Structures are given as structure tokens and as C-alpha cells.
Amino acid sequence: MPVMLPYEVRARLHRVRTRVERATRVLLGSAPSWKRRPNILPWFDRPDALDAVRRHGRSSEEATLLEKWVRDGYVIVEDCVDPADIDAMVATLDGLWDAPRPIPNLTLLGLREKLDGEQRDLAHGDLLALDPATRLRMRQVSDWRIHGLHYLDGHARRIFFNRELRRLASRLFGRSARPIAAINFMTGSEQALHQDMAVFHIYPHDYLIGAWIACEDIARQSGPLVFYPGSHRTALFPGFTDYPQTNLRTAEPDLTRRYREYVDGLAARFERREFLARKGQILLWHGMLIHGGAPVAERGTSRKSLVLHYCVRGADRAREVHGPFNW
User: Fold this and answer.
1) pLDDT tens digits, 296-307
2) Gap between the Cα atoms of 235 and 242, Å rounded
3) SS3 68
4) Is residue 100 part of a domain?
5) pLDDT score of 189 more than 80
């Protein structure tokens, strides 16, 4: 497993690299990379993708997996992640609310004090400074999540760098895959329908794979992940005229509203499915597959999951994008 620099060091390096890249473009007058390089799509988005599977599939099992990826835009796998790592990571998350001491650089997102209250983010130390009754109330009504736990927790880091998942993502890409993001959800997200390509800044297009890891058996009333097989073959929202500069992260409110309407219209053309996963099952999906979170039917029901995203080297263009940003 790769050695990780301390979180503060990584954050400073990221900020420095971003500033250097932007300053270099200003000094040299160069256009962003997506205007200088061809948009060569991954093998699975090309017209001969199914023929390529038949030519290069290494076994009948692998050929079946790749054909499903091409046709449906997702595959489901299991027995990739050590259950002990899942259990230890979840125990850390469950223990955050009454921890004896704060974890530095850890922030809990999406907290609120009443069900219809405004959401806010709190550093772990600030959360523990609240009185126990307030913490309990916030835990009961918040759809909270954490980004980047792998920077701070060894078990989350083992899952983030899981070799089998990385091997699978690499086989799907046809190139070496690398994890670029991680989010822990503890309850149903109720996210609006979207494609992850509209959230990340990826060029060439579609070099993005999501992996939704069930950290417990998922109940229907918890607001499970919903997805639409085959929807990965639809077009990127035409309103993102200068993608990857413009997407949901940089779009103005009216453009975001039009994107939501566009995706809802596309989804109506496909079958809706819910991922009622068993603990340890993993759904890998194409960056253009439409998905979201079903409504939570029973408040207080958990939906513990870890979501990873994989890319190939050089395709994540986030550092070249300029704000303002919505998050």
C-alpha cells in the first residue's frame, strides 16, 4: 500500500501545484489542456467496443463482465474488500460523535440540528465541543458524510488503495486506474439524479468510474442508490459548452436547474433500478451512468457506504479549472 503524506502536507502541495499550473498558463498564454489535446474516448465508448471484448477478453467470465459494462454501463462484484476493514472503518465513523479526542483535519459535512434545518459543516473538534444532547439530536436528523477519510484512517486507506478494485477499474479502462476521491455516507443521500461526469472535470471524456461499496446490508426504506442501466450512452448536457471548465461544480443556478431537467428527461427513457446490496457488494459504474439516491422512507435507518472514484493519469483536469465553485 502506498505511503501517504500527512493531510496538511498533501493539502499544501495541492494548493501549490494548482497555483503553479495556473500561473504557467498565464505566463505562457497557453490554452487549457482540453483545448490543446484530442478528445479520444475510452475503448468502451467506441463503436467497435463489443468486437474488442470478443478479441481481447481473457476468459469467458471476463468477457461477460466487459460486455455488460459496454451494454449497461455498470457491473456488480463482491469479495474484493476485506470485511474487517469495512467493520473497523465503520466503527471509527460511528464513534466520532462521542470520541474521547478530536481527529485533526476531519470535517463532518451536512450536519443540522432539526430535520428541515440548514445544513452546515463542522470540524470534528467543534462537534465534540457541543453538549451531548445537541450532538445526539444532530446525529439523528443529519444526512452526514465525510470526504477523504483515507487520509486519516488506516482501514479506509486500505480500501481506497485496494488492489483488486484497482485491477478491475484498470481492466475496464484498458489503462492503469488510480483512485482520486472517497466519500463515506452514513444515511441515504437522497441525491438528485446526475452523472458523475457532470461533477468531476474529466478530459478526455468518460475516463471516470465510480465504485459504491455497501458497508452494511442495504434496506429498501433507507433510500438506496438508484441507477438507470444503459443511460451511460446518452450525451453530456449540451449546456456545458466548455466542459470540463463548466459542470455542476462551476455552473450558475439556472444552468444547474436546466441540467437537472435534462437528466430527469433522459432517465425517463430507461429502467429504474435500486441497489439493495449485501454488505461487501460493490457497484462499479460508468461516469455517464445516471444515478441518485432514493427518498428515505424511514428516518433513522442507516445506509452506510463508501464511494470511490477512479480515473487514469492526467484525465482529472480539476487543477486547471477556475472558479467560483459551488463546493
Assistant:
1) 999 889 999 999
2) 14
3) helix
4) no
5) yes
How many domains is the chain partitioned into structurally?
A: 1
**pLDDT mean over 170-185:** 97
Pairing of strands 282-286, 291-293: unpaired
- Contact (CB, 8 A) for 209 and 84: no
Q: How many CB atoms lie within 10 A of CB 295?
A: 9
CB-based contacts of 75, cutoff 8 Å, min separation 6: 65, 68, 69, 172, 283, 284
Task: Spell out the residues 6+ positions from residue 322 whose beta carbon is closer than 8 angstroms to its own.
Answer: 22, 245
Query: What is the grid cell recorded at 292?
Result: 441518485
**Which three three-digit cell numbers place residue 20?**
503553479
Rounded CA-CA distance 108/124 in Å is: 7
- The sheet carrying 145-147 orders its strands as 74-77, 282-286, 208-214, 305-312, 177-185, 145-147, 107-111, 120-123
CATH code, domain carrying 172: 2.60.120.620
pLDDT above 90 as % of the chain: 87
For 86-89, the CB contacts below 8 A with 24+ separation are 86/155, 86/159, 86/213, 86/215, 86/279, 86/280, 86/306, 88/155, 89/149, 89/153, 89/155, 89/156, 89/159, 89/184, 89/215, 89/306
Q: What is the rounded average pLDDT of the residues 147-174?
A: 97
pLDDT at 82: 98
Residues 6+ apart with CB under 8 A from 278: 78, 214, 217, 218
Query: Which range of residues forms the domain containing residue 222?
Result: 31-81+162-320
Residue 45 vs residues 31, 163, 232, 233, 315: alpha-carbon distances, Å: 26, 25, 9, 8, 16
What is the distance between the alpha carbons of residues 148 and 192, in angstroms, rounded to a whole number? 22
Entry pTM: 0.91
